[in-house]
Amino acid sequence: MLELPPLSLYIHYPWCVKKCPYCDFNSHENGDKSGYIEELLIDLGEDLSYIQGRSIHSIFIGGGTPSLMSEQDLSQLFTGLRQKLNFDQDIEITLETNPGTFEIEKFKAFKKIGINRLSIGVQSFDNQNLKALGRIHSAQEATKACIEASKIFDNFNIDLMYGLQGQSTVECLSDLQQAIDLNPTHISFYQLTIEPNTLFAKFPPLLPKDDDIWSMGEAGVNLLEQHGFSRYEVSAYSKQPSKHNINYWEFGDYLGIGAGAHGKITLIDDQKMIRTLKSKAPKDYIENRKKTTEPIDNLAFEFMLNALRLKEGFDESLFTSRTGGSIPSIHDKLNQAKDLELLKQRGSKLYPTQKGFDFLNDLQALFL
User: What is the pLDDT of residues 116-173, one digit of tens each?
Assistant: First the structure.
C-alpha cells in the first residue's frame, strides 16, 4: 500500500544572462520577467491540494540563473511561500547561483531572506575551459564566489565538470583540488555530455577519448574520497548530503512550479502517482499557464531509476512504501541483477555493486 513520502518544492526561474552551449535546460537569455513572481504564487496555490497535510521538507530554486532575481522579488516570493506552506523546522532551501560579481554582492541578502544553501555553478577553475564552455565568469570570480559563500553559508555546493575539450587527467584533478581547497560541504562532479538540441550538439567540441574520460572520473572519485567527500549518488560527493537530492532519489514527492517545472505527487486516497508539467515557454507561463498531468504506471521501474543512483541503495520497506508493490513481485529481476553482479543484498538492504554503479543504465534497464 502506498504511503505519503516527504514533500519538497522545486521552483524554476527560466532566465539567464547567456545560454551555455552544453545546456539543455529550459533557460532563455532574454524576456519580459514582469508578473513572474505573482504567477509562481498563483501556480503554487493551485497545487495546494497535493500537499495532503504535509510540511515542506526542502526547496530548490533552479534555472536558468535564479540568483539574478532581485532581493525584492525573492522577498516577495518567500513571503508568499510562507503564507501558503508549512516549512519543516530544519528545511533545506537551496538557490542556484553563478559566480558573477553581481550575484556575489547579494549573498548576504539571500541568507537574510531564508536561503540556507547555495549551489555555485563553477564548472571549471581554468579560464580557457570556462571560455570553451561559454561561461561568462572567470576563474578568479569563481574562487571569490566560493570564498564569500563560505563566510555566509554553512552549507554550499560546487558544480564541477570533467571530460572537457583538451582536458587531461592532471588538469581535471587540479580543478577538483581547487574546489576541495575552498571547503564546500558538497561537490557535484560530473562528466560533460553532449545533449540534443544544444549548440554543442550542432557544433560538437573535440572531447577526450572515452578511456581518458573514464580515468578522470576514477581519479576524481579517489581524490574526493581521500578528502572526506563521500559518494552518495552517481555524481554527488558530500560531507553534508543534500536533503533535496536524497528526496528525489528515494522517490519522494515534489511540487514543481515555474515555466516548464515538473512535479511528482502521490495521491494517497486514490492509491496512485502522477507527474505534473507546467507551460514551458516563459511568455506562455505568465500569460496563459497550463498544467498537464499524467499517471506514473511502471512504478517499479520509476523507483529503480531513482533509488539505484544511491550508493547505499535502499531498504526493501522503502520500495513497498513508495510504490505500493511487494519485493516478491520483482524477485526475478532482482535475481537477474544479482546473477550479473550488478546488485547485492545485505539483510533487507539492496544496493548496486561497483560494477552496477559503473554500468547503471544496464542495471536500471533490467526493471523495464
Answer: 999 999 999 999 999 999 999 999 999 999 999 999 999 999 999 999 999 999 999 9
- The grid coordinates of residue 193 equal 555530455
Ramachandran region of residue 52, left (φ > 0), alpha (ψ -120 to 50) or beta? left
List b or e across 179-200, with b for residues whose CB sees 16 or more CB atoms inside 10 angstroms.
bbebebbbbbbbbbeeeeebeb
Q: What is the DSSP letter of 80?
A: H
The full DSSP string for 286-332 is HHH--EEEEE---HHHHHHHHHTTBTT-EEHHHHHHHHS--GGGGHH
Distance CA 82, CA 66 (A): 19
First to last CA, the chain: 21
Q: What is the per-residue pLDDT across 209-230, written as a single tens digit (0 to 9) for each?
A: 999 999 999 999 999 999 999 9
- Work out the percent of the chain whose per-residue pLDDT is above 90: 97
Helix then strand then coil, % of the chain, to nearest 5: 40, 25, 35
Is residue 129 classed exposed, middle or buried when 0-12, 13-18 and 19+ CB atoms within 10 A define those classes? buried
- Beta pairing, strands 236-238 & 230-233: antiparallel
pLDDT for the residue numbered 1: 84
Cell reading at 362? 544496464
How many Å apart are CA 118 and CA 77, to the nearest integer?
17
pLDDT digits (tens, 9 = 90+) for 5-33: 999 999 999 999 999 999 999 999 988 89
Question: How far apart, in whole angstroms, are the C-alpha atoms of residue 235 and residue 153?
Answer: 22
**Distances in Å between the alpha carbon of 245 and those of 177, 240, 338?**
24, 11, 26
With contact defined as beta carbons under 8 Å apart, do 63 and 96 qualify? yes
Please state the rounded mean pLDDT for residues 329-340: 96
